[in-house]
């Protein structure tokens, strides 16, 4: 894997080849990653995996025609061949008047903040250290009374390097680490077996939850699922545990990207000037969070990133736009560009969260006579064109304001606009993933038992 400086040098060389081959404009990205993972089961080493990979992607333009190629061979000869292939492809491509690099006047420049994303201690974790972490997670879970079997514990650590260079003059690179632990265990016997898990990931080893805590939580969640009943049927309040509540925010993001709006395939289109949520709801995106899992100083087009409220006091603040969709919509790009090595930029958020409310989860459910508490969602029955929502779910019955018996094989259904307006967040927000939300209550959902 190349260092950030070496990656930029390789991209500069590739762009020089593209210019010599007649490209009017071009950009290139580098992605390199190395990781080490250990898996254990029933106290014994089950697997160990080490992976290293790197890839360069080139996008070049001949007028309004463009092509993308990617290569994992980074030798000069392979890069020269990639340029030849991209030029030949571009000559045969259909013209696209909206495609192109980000406007040069909008490009940011270094030096760039790194937001403390790299941890030498995480990079230097040995196989033996990771094995001990995985064993501690699984052993702790298996020691809890009622746990009958295990699907294993795991621990992993990795380092990544990414870089972007464009013919318009942008150059930027970033490096980061990640470390994680998990445990998956089983309780019960025969047809009554249940399984559940816990997992945690962080940039720095010092921020990672202890393997013992991960294992204990996996065991507790598994035991709580024993002896499930059938889910109720009817219209009722539903509480989304914070393990799954962030998925509702994810559905919003899919509907407010510039490409969805340009194609007119979003259920939000035509309603963007109306209150989308209640007046107390704010959703924030912060690419500058210290040690954030998706923190970044610049986006995949070389534009500066900045903290932003995606929803402010219930109102959508605008679309998330890359340069191509921005040209279609007549809007400037918003610094949310994201891409891989083999395609043009799209859009993604960074560290996203729904701001917490003032009530505890217990207070949110205190007046629910009969309802459902969801901590598992199954399937992807969400239509972002119409806003129709229908997913399989599991969790617990709510009776007289208290959690009751576990339930399985439920289906919950509604419409996302109605769900957003009815959404009430609890006060238990935790920053654990790239997208986070507290426990959420949504009234009026239709629940169908199996």
TrEMBL record:
Residues 26-90 form the Metalloprotease TldD/E N-terminal domain. Residues 125-226 form the Metalloprotease TldD/E central domain. GO terms for molecular function: metallopeptidase activity. Residues 327-361 are annotated as: Disordered. This is TldD/PmbA family protein. It comes from the Bacteria. GO terms for cellular component: cytosol. Belongs to the peptidase U62 family. Residues 233-449 form the Metalloprotease TldD/E C-terminal domain. Gene3D superfamilies: PmbA/TldD superfamily.
